[in-house]
Amino acid sequence: MKTAVYPGSFDPITNGHLDIIIRAANIFDRLVVAVLNNSSKTPLFTVEERVELIRDSIPKVPGCEIEVTSFDGLLADFAQSIGATTVIKGLRAVSDFEYEFQMALANRKINHRLDTAFLMTSERYMYLSSSLVRDLGRYGGDISDFVPLKIQKRVIDKLRK
Ligand code: COA
Question: Which residues sit with their C-beta closer than 6 Å to ligand 1?
């Protein structure tokens, strides 16, 4: 069974993330979507909320078991603990490349069996990020094209609080 891990902050999950999840699920037998419990960031949603929002957003993908969980510490160690040999990352623009290249090399240095596979974002999500969703929603903008339908109300409610 080929297992991949798709890590991120997902604060909150966007349609860009969802697109990557579905495409990765069509390649791997098991996909673990892993929310980083990052003490250096002050997230809008708690880790538990982010995990729940992802669970409620993802459809069933035949042939792939999708799990959603959280982790802290090093991604390479977490990947090993769940039996994942591939990290999935989405690449949106050339500007993502340098950082992702560094991360991929660092992760392979820590865990030499761990490779990173990059999926090119779909062009309609090229400019999308969680902070863009947060800013738009906070100031009354329309986030309906950017956030999975099932969680839009929860995201808007939280942002307007
Ligand atoms: N669609 C939409 N948005 C996307 C996207 C896509 N396909 N891909 C990335 N993004 C956005 C994210 O929403 C995030 O937006 P934000 O900054 O506005 O919140 C931004 O791009 C950065 O995403 P990403 O590069 O995935 O970073 P992240 O903070 O979400 O997650 C980890 C980074 C968790 C993968 C990384 O910090 C990690 O592995 N940490 C553990 C410690 C470790 O092992 N470090 C490496 C070795 S030292």
Answer: 7-9, 11, 14, 16-17, 20, 36, 74-76, 90, 92, 103, 106-107, 121, 125, 128-131
